[in-house]
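Figure-free illustration: sequence to structure, shown twice.
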Amino acid sequence: MKEYLTSLTLVRIIYRLYWVLKQQYGLSFYWVKGLHELVVFWQEYQHYQSINTNNNFNISLQNWLPYLQDKTKVTPLDSVYFLQDTWAAKKIFELKPKHHYDVGSSVTTMGIISQYIPVTMIDIRDVLIELENFKFINGSILDLPLEDGSIESLSSLCVIEHIGLGRFGDIIDPWGSEKAIEEIKRVVKPGGMILCSVPIDKENKIYFNAHRAFTRDYILSLFKECEVIEEKYQYGTQLYNCYDANRGFGTGLYMLRKC
């Protein structure tokens, strides 16, 4: 479908591009605040030197390593990943599978889970670190290196929505999300459990190239061969038991059993 640009649409696009560059490359005058923070840093360094009686540590100008943005009143965290990963970890710990498989989720979360339950993680981007009970396989969610019906427990958290948009170096494919779900269903055995999460919105949308968003009905229709055991919805800093279209954009968390 072709798009025709009105002047208002063009202004919105220009602003969005500016916002992206500002967020990802610092295209702003925010460095002025940094100058102020450097002055504060210098004052604190001088104060530390003036009261320092601890000769067990060497401190000098040449070892400066200024961190200037950590004085926050609230601990920074991403509420989406915090809530979905803790939810998924709890489910995996409760299920106690002999071996858990993950496709493309947070490697940090999977590394922690692997210290309780052995984990094999699959992703197109290599994990260059070794850990006991944690195995990594380079592979695509569109062609999982696993046999049909071989997995009892599989997670893929905030992954499906990205497939086919090229953001993470994957091939552009308008049907990427649907194909990814078919692969997940292929490798999970009947009775096996699937934990997944995706952005939820009032209509199916593509926020190119960040991610897609799905309606609740559409994402569940793609898992029609599965029974919904539990669903949660993240809006802001909370998880809710029920979907609420009035809350707008959020994240749907689904625990599914393959029939």
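We now fold a second protein in the same way, so the two outputs can be compared directly.
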Amino acid sequence: MRLGLSSKTKQTDGWMAIRLAEDNIYAAHVRRAPSSRAEVTLAVAYSGITREVVLEKLAKECHADRYSCTTLLMPAEYQILSVDAPTVPPEELKTAIRWRLKDMLDFHVDDAMIDVLDIPPNQNAPVRNRAMYAIAARTISVEQCQTMFRQAKIPLSVIDIPEMAQRNIAAMLEPQGRGIALLSFDTEGGLLTFTASGELYLSRRIDVTLAQLTHGDAVQKRAFHDRVTLELQRSLDHFDRQYHYVTLAKLVLAPTGIDNTDLRAYLAENLQLAVEILDLESVFDFTHTPELKHPVQQQHYFLTLGAALRHQEKVL
């Protein structure tokens, strides 16, 4: 999702991502390096009575006006749908997509802001209609977000979505010529993404929250492990049918804040795919933010760091 907004040129390289989570507001600044791990120069969390007050405090204490800033929409604020790309000139693409979405959204298409994202085709297959993702965000949600950041004097440049933030981290983990599946959990539930060559091919939401996965007795945990496994099996089967030309190397589990070796072992036993647990220190340099070496903090900042890892992308 690339809802680009106008802003002045910033003094500091890299992106500051500010994520409005249920428990806190998380902010992180990441400076990418072409031949080494991305450097995290800042990671802070704020809580307070209202988001407006918290954002104002963050803006002042972190000098947000020195950065190019991005934030993430909440899952309830947008929909991401796969559609066939219409054969129209580029300047007419979003209008054509909007027409196709009018009966697919759970809100009126006139109340939506539309963006599009290409899905890479099979280069060895005959030319045919290519698929793409249409991302439809509720206009009122985007406008409220813009207003809140503007009033806090935070120069918001981009509003993104969690799928793309997770894609950014997955791109750093892919073996040459192969793709990976990456699975994360938070208070909103599970997010599964399939990527290859730094591109997002497929995403799925899993209706299991972090609390359900990490709390409760052995019987309850086993039930949620079963649910996650079933959703993964279905998603892997769908991916194999739809994108058989992409070879998956592994499934990577994002930090959950606790020892998740039991989940890794359960998935490895029931899936025909290698399963690994991610330590974000393999992707990021935490020299300036050593607190992020802890698994709990890695879970808290996972999507924030992914959002800050973004490249500047061309809008379709």
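Summary for the second example: The two ends are 10 Å apart (CA to CA).
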